Amino acid sequence: GILAGILGYGGPLFFHFPTPGTLVPAAFLAGAALSVMTVDRTPAVRRLQDIGVVCLSSLLALVFALASVAEVYLHRGDQAMAVADYAKANSDYRVARGLRPWDPDLAGGVFHQFVAAATAGHANAAGYAEQWEARIGWVADDEQVAQNRAALHLALGDPTRAWQLLETPLAKDSHNPQI
Questions:
Q1: In angstroms, rounded to a whole number, what is the distance separating the alpha carbons of residues 148 and 14?
Q2: Which 8-state DSSP code applies to residue 83?
């Protein structure tokens, strides 16, 4: 389990993934695969437990594989954003979102990328920011997302809508200098 944990930690670092989040699951799965039960089990119970471990391990391996491939597409999207190829970035980010549908923060992060480009004067990024604003979902009440939405509407020339978007965060914390 320890060796698998170290490999799970080092693997993402070789590929520049943002976090070695596979450490704990890798150690858990390796521990389950390498452990030996000291309690005597009947052959039927042993077979059932082995099938359960294999099914759970396979499911988690599939989820981790999808998440890893999504990281590649996120990285490609970031590279496309860096050279202002917004159509390519949008395409790569959409693939990443399809591979990680359980991640509510992904859409918020991508939205932030396009808002930053739009507020920096790249007008063609604003359309993609609007698309990702519609995809945000669960993080819709997040203060940072509200600030990004307001910044987008300022970039689009709609200060009234920007102010409306900031009213709720300001009501919650009117002394927050970040708002």
A1: 32
A2: T
